[in-house]
Amino acid sequence: MDEREDHRQIVSLCEHVQTEWLRARAESLGGRVWSDGPLTWVDGPDGLILVFPETIDPSALERSIEQARNEERELVGAWVDNEMDASALAAAGFERGWAPWWLAADLAGIDAPADPRVHVGVDLEDVRDEQGHNGYDRMLGLARAQPERAFYAGIRIDGVLAGHAWSFVDGDVAGIFDLDVWPPFRRRGFGAALLHAVAAAAHGAGARTAVVGTSPQDAIIYRAQGFNRVGMSSTWWRHL
């Protein structure tokens, strides 16, 4: 298998893990997932999203748009493989959005001493620190509902939450999601500490490969930790 075919297979894995992450979040947090012909829709905390269709039936697409309009939605999204013909989305009024870079790494190669300031698990103090109310506690429902595959990590500096990250295991692949360090705490190695924590949790759950979809500017932290770029996908958005 040449490098392009190898990367193509890894991109497919990235897209599958992204789909399962969106699906799990929706199903754990009171949303829903349904199919209409070749289209699979996820309606959860990330909004109403069409996930990686192999083909697009314009009639099915229009039905979902009309349903979203009747529900007074403001936005409908789609994650799309770059090798799929997206002309039906453009014809339906979708506009191309950000293009995630997919990066992958062997989890056995992501190795660093654990940072004692990083806590892996559901920490209710994170809820109070980050939101000041219980809204984020609902988001942590995924880690409670699927503790064997969904791992949340937060890092505390002098008792204050400074950032967080997730990993989500699907078979022997783990997606890294929502890695973020609040601005006052950046450029101090905390992002790498969070990445290592959720990667180690996923590795311990049986994952061998880690993947992440990120922007070009945010890819730097992952490349510094051994991730390599394998391809891209696209997002499309319809404002209602």
Q: Strand share of the residues?
A: 25-35%
Order of H and E elements: HEEEHEHEEEHHHEEEHEHE
**Helix percent band:** 25-40%
| Structural category | alpha+beta
Count of discrete alpha- or pi-helical segments spanning 4 or more residues:
8
Alpha-carbon Rg, integer: 18 Å
> What is the count of β-strands?
12
Give a quick account of the main beta sheet: strands, pairing sense, barrel closure.
12 strands, mixed
What would the principal axes of the Cα set say about the shape?
Answer: globular
Terminus-to-terminus distance: 44 Å
Fold and architecture overview:
Helices cover 35% and strands 33% of the residues. With 240 residues, the protein is α+β, with helices and mostly antiparallel strands. Strands 1, 2, 3, 4, 5, 6, 7, 8, 9, 10, 11 and 12 form a twelve-stranded mixed β-sheet that branches. The longest helix has 26 residues, at 3-28. The termini are far apart. The model is unreliable at 131-135 (pLDDT under 50).
Secondary-structure map with pairings?
Blueprint: H1 3-28, E1 32-36, E2 39-44, E3 47-51, H2 58-70, E4 75-81, H3 87-91, E5 95-96, E6 101-106, E7 118-120, H4 124-131, H5 135-139, H6 141-145, E8 150-157, E9 160-170, E10 173-181, H7 190-204, E11 209-214, H8 219-224, E12 228-239
Parallel strand pairs: 3-4, 10-11
Antiparallel strand pairs: 1-2, 2-3, 4-12, 5-12, 6-11, 6-12, 7-8, 8-9, 9-10
Task: Please summarize what this structure is.
The protein is an alpha+beta fold and 240 residues long. The protein has helices at residues 3-28, 58-70, 87-91, 124-131, 135-139, 141-145, 190-204, 219-224, and strands at residues 32-36, 39-44, 47-51, 75-81, 95-96, 101-106, 118-120, 150-157, 160-170, 173-181, 209-214, 228-239. Strands 1, 2, 3, 4, 5, 6, 7, 8, 9, 10, 11 and 12 form a twelve-stranded mixed sheet that branches.
